[in-house]
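User: Some background: our group keeps a shared notebook of sequences we're curious about, and every so often someone picks one and asks for a predicted structure to add to the entry. Today it's my turn. The entry only has the sequence so far, pasted here. Could you supply the structure so I can complete it?
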Amino acid sequence: MERYVAFLRGMNLGGRRIKNERLRAELEALDLSDVACFRASGNVVFATGESDEAALSSRIENGLGEALGYEVPVYLRNEDELRAVGEQRPFAPAALRASRGKLQVAFLLAAPRAAARKRALALSTIEDRLAIDGRQLYWLPKGGLSESELDLDAIAAALGPITIRTMGTVEQIAAKYLA
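Assistant: Of course. Here's the predicted structure to add to the notebook entry:
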C-alpha cells in the first residue's frame, strides 16, 4: 500500500462547506484506507494499492464531485514526493528572513514545459519571488498574501490550475503522517 496526500482545491471556501468526518467517509467509500484529514482545508492523507496516479486522481475527483455536487480538483503527491517538497529550499535564507510573508507552495497538475515556466517566472519580482521545481511553484511574498500584487490568474494561465498551501502546512503533514 502506498501513501498519498491529496490537496483538494476549493474546499471550505464560499458556499462549499464539508466537515472532515464527511470528507473522510466519502474517501473511504472510494476504497481508500487509513484516511486522515489535516485541518479543514482539503488536505487528505490515505493509503491505497492503486499505483496509477492519473486513474486515482480521476476516481477521487469523480467520486467527490458526485457526492458533493461540485467539481473538486485533486493534486496528488505520494509520500516521497511530499517529503521532497517539504525539504525544498528554493530561496536563500536571507530572502526568507527579510520576508514578512509565509513561503507558499502552489501545487500543479503537471510539470510545466519550458515556455510555461518562463511565462510564470517572468511574473517574479522582489516583492513576490517565484521558483518552480517539478510540479510545484514556490512563492515567497514580501508580506501578507492580501498585500501581494502577484497575478494568480496569470500564473494559472501559464501553468494551469493550482492549489496553494503554506510550506508550514506541507511540513506539518509530512511530520505527522509520513514520518
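Suggested note for the entry: The chain has a mean pLDDT of 95. The helical segments are 20-28, 53-68, 79-87, 93-98, 114-121, 152-159, 167-177.
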